[in-house]
Each structure stands twice: as structure tokens, then as C-alpha cells.
């Protein structure tokens, strides 16, 4: 089983993550931010990742540190669960509609962190969640995993729908990329012989 359990504690946050890549989408998520929890639930269910996430932090200030640090630990958990990346498909993509919103996600577990984020979210907040934190979460996640990630908003006027499409699309593209290629179970999918 490709699993990981990680904890990161700083002066600002304490994040505990449990991850199973070959799961069914079970989740236990508690962050103190309702909208962020909702997005992580969608991520787990649409990727069929088993996810435990307990996150505490200085949310009396705002959710920035909590969201960013969760991205860091989640990215590290994926990297840990994947190990040397042997047998994975490596690439994934998804064009995901969410009502009027349409978002394209394309990614490569390349060992090279890059985020291209072409998204325009109309509202500054959804509930008490700052929508600019979506990009901060994705930056932290891509850097910790070593992920090349392209996100392009094709349509959308509802901020909740746009963000939901991003999290669902990311999950569906990732599950493709981490899936094992039965034809080449012992191969690392790189001409260099290593991804890390």
C-alpha cells in the first residue's frame, strides 16, 4: 500500500496528514475553516484518496498559514507515498465543468515544481475564506511534491464553482498521474532513470 503519515509543527501551525493513494475516498478532515474542509473533502472523494487531515493554526489572524502549511504537508505526503515514483503513469489532465465554470488541469509529477495559475476568481472571499489562498495552497503543494501544474480557467462567474472545479479537477488529474501502469510496473517513467 502506498501510504504516508506526516506531521509538521511550527510556531504558526500544527498539521497532521495521513494519506492512502490506493483508497476509496474515505476522509477525516478538521481544519477550523469550513470552506477549506469542503474543498479537501472533494479532493479526497474525486481522487479516491484516503485522507486524514488535522490542521490547527493561528486562524485568529487569518487562514493563510493554515492553508499554506496544509499544502506543504499534503505535497510531502504524496511524495513520501510515491517513493521513487516507480511504475506510475506520471501525467494527468482533466477538463472539469462545474455548472457555468470550466477549468482545465494538466500536470506532471516531474520532480520540478512549477505552477501556472491562469484563474480569475471574482469574489475576494467565499464565506470567511480568502480566495487568493487557493493559489497559495497550490504553490505550497506543487513545491513540496515536485509537481508541474497548469491550471487554466476557461469559463466561470461563481467563485465557489470555480474553486470547486479546481479541487475536483486536481484530484482527477492526480489520480491518473499516480496510477500504476501495469505494463511497466518496475520502470521509473523518465529517460533519466529518476524523477527526484
What does this structure look like?
The protein contains four helices and ten strands, in the order βββαβαβββββαβα. Helix 1 links the parallel strand 3 and strand 4 (50-57). It is of the alpha+beta class.
CATH homologous superfamily label:
Imidazole glycerol phosphate dehydratase, domain 1
- Please state the overall shape, judged from the principal axes of the Cα atoms: globular
What count of structural domains? 1
Question: How do the SSEs run, as a string of H and E?
Answer: EEEHEHEEEEEHEH
Rg (C-alpha, Å): 16 Å
Any idea of the CATH topology? Ribosomal Protein S5, domain 2
What is the architecture at the second tier of CATH?
Answer: 2-Layer Sandwich
Give unreliable regions as ranges.
none
Strand percent estimate: 25-35%
- Which structural class best describes the helix and strand composition? alpha+beta
Strand order of the largest sheet: 1-2-4-3
Helix content: 25-40%
- What is the class in the CATH system? Alpha Beta
User: Number of DSSP helices?
Assistant: 4
Number of strands: 10
The main sheet comes to:
4 strands, mixed
List strands and helices in order, with pairings.
Blueprint: E1 3-9, E2 13-20, E3 27-30, H1 34-47, E4 50-57, H2 64-82, E5 91-98, E6 101-108, E7 114-118, E8 125-126, E9 129-130, H3 133-145, E10 148-155, H4 159-178
Parallel strand pairs: 3-4, 7-10
Antiparallel strand pairs: 1-2, 2-4, 5-6, 6-10, 8-9
Summed up, what is this model?
This protein has 196 residues and is α+β, with helices and mostly antiparallel strands. The protein is 34% helix and 31% strand.
Amino acid at each position: 500500500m502506498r501510504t504516508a503519515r506526516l506531521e509538521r509543527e511550527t510556531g504558526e501551525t500544527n498539521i497532521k496528514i495521513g494519506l492512502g493513494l490506493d483508497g476509496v475516498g474515505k476522509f477525516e478532515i478538521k481544519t477550523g475553516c469550513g470552506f477549506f474542509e469542503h474543498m479537501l473533502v472533494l479532493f479526497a472523494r474525486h481522487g479516491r484518496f484516503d485522507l486524514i487531515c488535522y490542521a490547527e493554526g493561528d486562524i485568529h489572524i487569518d487562514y493563510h498559514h493554515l492553508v499554506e502549511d496544509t499544502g506543504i504537508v499534503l505535497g510531502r505526503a504524496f511524495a513520501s507515498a510515491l517513493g521513487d515514483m516507480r511504475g506510475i503513469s506520471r501525467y494527468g489532465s482533466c477538463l472539469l465543468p462545474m455548472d457555468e465554470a470550466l477549468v482545465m488541469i494538466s500536470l506532471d509529477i516531474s520532480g520540478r515544481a512549477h505552477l501556472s495559475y491562469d484563474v480569475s476568481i471574482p469574489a475576494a472571499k467565499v464565506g470567511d475564506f480568502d480566495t487568493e489562498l487557493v493559489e497559495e495552497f497550490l504553490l505550497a503543494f506543487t513545491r513540496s511534491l515536485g509537481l508541474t501544474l497548469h491550471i487554466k480557467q476557461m469559463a466561470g462567474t461563481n467563485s465557489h464553482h470555480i474553486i470547486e472545479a479546481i479541487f475536483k479537477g486536481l484530484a482527477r488529474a492526480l489520480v491518473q498521474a499516480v496510477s500504476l501502469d501495469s505494463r511497466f510496473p518496475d520502470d521509473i517513467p523518465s529517460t533519466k532513470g529518476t524523477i527526484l
